[in-house]
Amino acid sequence: MAMSSSLLWAVDIFGRVYTLSTVGQYWELCKDTQLEFKRVSAVKQCCWGIACDHQVYTYVFSGDVPIRYQEETYENQRWNPVGGFCEKLMPSDRWQWSDVSGLKHQQLDSFTLPSPHWEWESDWYVDENIGGEPTEKGGWTYAIDFPSTYTKDKKWNSCVRRRRWIRYRRYKSRDVWAKITSHDDPERLPDPFNDISIGGWEITDEPLGRLSVWAVSLQGRVWYRENVCHHNPEGSTWSLISTPGEVAQISCGSYDLLWATLWEGQAIVREGIDRNNPQGISWSTVESPSSDNGIMHVSVGVDVVWCITKDRKVWFRRGVNSHNPCGTSWIEMVGEMMMVNVGLNNQVWGIGCDDRTIYFRQGVTPSELSGKMWKAIVCGRESDRSQTGSSTSLLSAGCFFTDDIQNQTNTVIQGDADTSSDTELSSIPTNLSSTPPMGAAASSASSTGSQAAGAPASVTVDPLDSDQGEAPAASASDEKAHLESRKSTNPTPSTELQWTNIDLKEAHRHAVLSVSTFTETSSLSSLGMFSVGAEEQYGADEHPLWAWVSGGGCLVDLHSPLKWFAVPSGLSSSVQSLSLSITPAQTAAWRKQIFQQLSERTKRELENFRHYEQAVEQSVWVKTGMLQWWRNWKPHKWMDVRVALEQFTGSDGMRDSILFIYYMYHEEKKYIHVFLNEVTIIAEVLKEGKHSFALYTPERTKQRWPICLAATTEQEMHDWLSLLTMSCCESRRIQGPPSHHAIWSVSCKGDIFVSEPSPELEAEPHPMPCDQMFWRQVGGHLRLVECNNRGIVWGIGYDHTVWVHTGGYGGGFIQGLASSADNIYTQSDVKCVYIYENQRWNPVTGYSSRGLPTDRYMWSDASGLQECTKANTKPPSPQWSWVSDWYIDFSTSGGTDREGWQYAADFPASYHGHKTMKDFVRRRRWARSSLICQGTSWLHVGTDQPFVSISVGAFFQVWAVARDGSAFYRGSVSPKKPAGDCWYHIPSPQKQKLKQVSVGRTSVFVLDKNGNLWYRQGITPSYPQGSAWDHVSNNIRKMSVGPLDQVWVIADKVQGSHGLSCGTVCHRTGVQPMEPKGLAWDYGIGGGWEHVTVRGNASQAPRGTVPSESPPEPMESEGSGRKGQAERSRTPLMVSERQEVDSNAVNC
């Protein structure tokens, strides 16, 4: 999935503005190059900046939708007995041309453009619509008097009338820097500006597109720009905000956080910022973290504050949030910076004090706001981009091998170079041959004390051994060594930089990249020794020297790698010129020779150590990440945890894995762990709208309390699901497609699972508990799945289409090695999303959308607890897309009237499709179809049968249920004639509508819409339709009968340790040829299951373990004996209705 692009803004020391895309690798110069800027502050839709003339400019991005503003004024007239309606009004009336209230005089010619950056789209015209309905020609609306309620119809008592005139203006200065002009009183014009910051777009209930723009003048005064929003990107006026002292710099976060620095070194914090008062109420003072050095720069995010003191030290503020914007204490961070900037998601950028390089703070997460380390951005400029052949890497790699390659390199370079470059090229092989290998460089650095050659460019911090507060201290020494190494690699400048009007303490020229950067990216430490040329202010291979950076509009995806830290192609102009003279034949020869020498070296080194015993018995592979965990103590809520998956590979090649979950409990670090060979299922679940999944073990299945984890994005959740599923399969030695005897199941989300049964599952008298079965997910999305014991698997989608399993495996989010290469097809499914429109009866207006304060939302889900409007209701997940508009659903259970309404006495109640005298509320259901398309191992099969359920027995008996709840039997089905010849209608149980059928070897079970399970009696080879229905149990959601007449169901209201669980997989025990309905239920995995099938499980128990059966009781045709037998086999799953359903179980 491609990551959406956003921009990082920066200003170099010459005042030029550059942008760097999150998916790019080069700095691009801003289009408008005529201006020189001091500082910029950016958000997603625009950027504000202060030029070197101390004036404010704004840069608004272009888009598909123009920025338009509607100007309007009203023309008013009064009726005169002589001339009718005329422009002469009474002295007490409103103006002839006014605003909608009539209090402001607004003539057509009084409207002017607010600035030169606007233009009129058209001339004035009359709006001939009122409330969306057309009026008579002329657009007049009539009323008795001013002001009153206006109507489009003229009546006998209509004494006044008015009409609205409209004119649109459009903002035209997009993708250019537009100067902010001021129309304020000349005596109150703001001073020349020195700093600017924008934010506030995430303030609670803030209108869409509204921004808070704050600026600081050279006199130390703070100004606020009024009315900056989407349709007015320039704002209107500047308002002066009083401060306790002279302000030097200011920073505004995306929410309600605003900090500023005073010239004396303290920081001030604005309090009381909200939607109704975006300017805030008062200031609070925060002292500097150092008594000797005051604060010179500050930057804020959503709930973080970073600052720079006058000694260039970096500090992080603890405990900052909306309730305590001042925070609690300061933490010193590693490094020395000129400035820092906090962007979206609290990501941090900084500019180095000595090298003027932009650094990115890695490891910033919601649970570790301070991050882990600084990493330099080494991107070049767009003007420096060039293409380099593969021979450049071969030339550089030659220095790590034998003298033969180096001599060959020397010959090639001198032979192919022209005469004018002989002097330059003759020194290159010397540099290459004198450069030690990376290992030698590292050892030399450690012996001499120099950190320039061997220092790594990044420091790996173990996420399991650091928390939010201790992370900076844990990596302090390594980070400091990294920053020092970058400083030491910058050579002394040979020439001074050109003069600039930006005040700088010192400006040096540096080499293109430090050696430490090369050691991390490509290990080509010799490339920094090539000569460089000069180009304008910078050399062709120099990185720009930066003065300011702004990440307010830069959205960094933590799960998508950035290209900012890799060396761009084209390291230096001299290397690129060399690569142009190398022929493809020489390149191929080098590749072959290098490969041969590496192979010989590998054999030689392994041969010397063959007689040694293996020192390490197993290898360990670890994956870590940040997730949320639904904790198992009260109050139950989501908490941030650190997750680590450790996978062990033994000497025999077998793999096993452990999942660790680290959390904080009363300021103490604790953890829980799960052996993946004990995990029975990993499934995606629905829990509070999060991207969550659950891990079940046999013990947690009995408790009805799985381990629930949630990721920040759906892609991250799918990555963890795929990895954990593959690790579980490796631990249990399961691979490839499902077997012919597999048990299939579908969750309430449409995910498909499969379990490989063992003979002990049906063994008597002690069968294996079904909570120990392992279920793995296969790709696809279906409503139900059916199969037989010959490996034929069919499914029905939510759109009633039929699909057949092709024998492949994987697909969906399970990709790579865990998915088969063939038998993967594109599967689509259509699913309806439902919302409800609710209304209450009012004695004055009738049914209306204004309910009582205690009523449910007027647009809600089926329960009424969650607000669901047409605008905010989304598809089930980002993988789904809408394929229809909202429409009224007339097929709601209970019936509807002609407009789709259902009526009831109150919310919630039993709804019916006709209105009565006692019905005070009504609702109707709206539906919208969504589509999913993904690669799976399912192939579509066309059918025109309107069935909702179908089943094939062991002897090819086919039963089906139609949409109207009727049962059908297909006659004359055989292997030679699988389609049969005709359908036989089977009467349903009295007053019941069927919804599912399942056929075993000799048994036929059906399920009605009220949750009752029925058994078909009297089925014989000569009369396969049977004779009557017999009730078995209630509270059943779905059921399945196996080829040996085994019965499995999805049941509701099953007793657990925390209450009642919905969607529990249960097994019918005691099924025998003389007792085909069984005797009792065995409760298995529970919480959130929608469908199960055991159509492929033909595993029989060993004969020796089957005890001798007691003689069956004599069958009685009539009387109490038959009645007692029926009562004994009818074992419902109903429990006490008064017991509360467990709210913490993973429900559907």
Automatic annotation (TrEMBL):
InterPro entries per the UniProt record, alphabetical:
Beta-propeller_rpt_TECPR (IPR006624), Peroxin/Ferlin (IPR006614), PH-like_dom_sf (IPR011993), TECPR1-like_DysF (IPR010482), Tectonin_beta-prop (IPR051513)
Location of this chain's protein in the cell: Cytoplasmic vesicle, Autophagosome membrane; Lysosome membrane
Compositional bias annotation for Basic and acidic residues: 477-487, 1119-1130
Query: Where does this protein come from, organism-wise?
Result: Gallus gallus
* Region named Disordered: 415-497, 1097-1148
Superkingdom, natural source: Eukaryota
Record flagged with keyword Manganese: no
Biased composition, Low complexity: where in the chain?
A: 433-458
- May I have one GO cellular component term? lysosomal membrane
How is this protein named in the record?
Tectonin beta-propeller repeat-containing protein 1
Keywords from UniProt, A to Z, are: Autophagy, Cytoplasmic vesicle, Lipid-binding, Lysosome, Membrane, Repeat, Signal
Domain Peroxin/Ferlin, chain residue ranges per copy = 66-127, 139-172, 828-889, 900-933
- Repeat among keywords: yes
Q: One MF term from GO for this chain?
A: lipid binding
Q: Which SMART domains match?
A: DysFC, DysFN, TECPR
Q: Where is the composition biased (Polar residues)?
A: 415-432, 488-497
Q: Which GO terms describe its biological process?
A: autophagy
